[in-house]
Amino acid sequence: MLDVHPAHHAATTWRDFLIHIATIVLGLLIAVCLEQTVEAIHHRHQLHHLEEDLHTEGIRNLHIALDNIRASEQRRQTDAQQYAELIQAVRDHRAAAALPTQSIIYSKPAYAVWTVAQQSGTLGLLSREDAQCYARLYGVVQYAVDQVKDINSANDRRTVAMLPGVTDLAGFPALAQTGQPPRFDLSLLNPQDLRDARNAISADLLTARQSIKWNVYLYGIEWSVLRGSRSDEQNLHTIYDSMDVYLHGGIPALLAKYPLPQ
After folding, report:
1. Could you tell me what percent of the chain has a pLDDT over 90?
2. Residues 220, 254: contact at Cβ < 8 Å?
3. Three state DSSP letters for 4-34
4. Is residue 131 part of a domain?
5. Tens of pLDDT along 19-35?
6. Distance from C-alpha of 126 to C-alpha of 128, rounded to nearest angstrom
7. 3-class DSSP state for residue 62?
């Protein structure tokens, strides 16, 4: 708050009056300038803090993307082997063997910093170019988050389809409480149950492939933005090149060309 104190004596001439007005105006200008300088310093500090937080969240998402790619690779391999076993068993006119169920954990990519910045209004501190770039980046983050939901739902459908083959019905409630996968005997499944199981496994397989795709995309655009790119063209190039590199050499090739930042 600015306080303006009256003069100790009344102005008797125009000169005194003008000097008095000029003093007040000068004092107000100095106060406003000081206030705006403090506010600018505060905004600069907020912007620096936001940029640091976005950078840290970006590094975290690189690691999450890699972990989710590895998890989806394991799930894809298990699904493919189980699906092939179901098909081969039909051709051989025998009961299918149930492969061991893996407990695979996924992590949602982080987006808390971006969400808080949106809600608090601090996104307005970013340049227009930076704001647009991060908006597109976090659009890809959202797709990767959705993949975690989709793959958990697909896994639930896969488990439900296999339930008629549970061997230990007495112990099943305890397994359900602990989250441990039950043991299945696929010879207990009738033809319709087997078809449902194949459909659920194939859907889970496709969902795992989608998860790999979006996490590779996330890794590519996150890597590009962390390296300072604000160009849509450059970021898209890195996204699609990351996928091409991954398809030809997997995670080792991806890390060789796009290594994790120190």
Report:
1. 48
2. no
3. CCCCCCCCCCHHHHHHHHHHHHHHHHHHHHH
4. yes
5. 767 777 777 777 676 66
6. 6
7. helix
In the chain, the largest separation of any two C-alpha atoms, in whole Å, equals: 116
Task: Say which residue the tokens 């910093």 belong to.
Answer: 113
Helix (H, G, I), strand (E, B) or coil at 2: coil
State which residues form the domain around 167: 14-257
pLDDT tens per residue, range 82-141: 899 888 888 888 888 877 666 788 899 999 999 998 888 888 888 889 989 999 999 999
106: left (phi over 0), alpha (psi -120 to 50) or beta: beta
Does the predicted model carry a pTM greater than 0.90?
no
In a domain, 38, yes or no: yes
Q: Beta partners for 184?
A: 166
Q: What is the dihedral of CA 189, 190, 192, 196, to 10 degrees?
A: 10
What tokens were used for 44? Answer: 């600069």
* 42 in any annotated domain: yes
- Amino acid letter, 42: H
In 168-190, which ranges are continuous DSSP H helix?
Answer: 172-178
Please state the domain count of the chain: 1
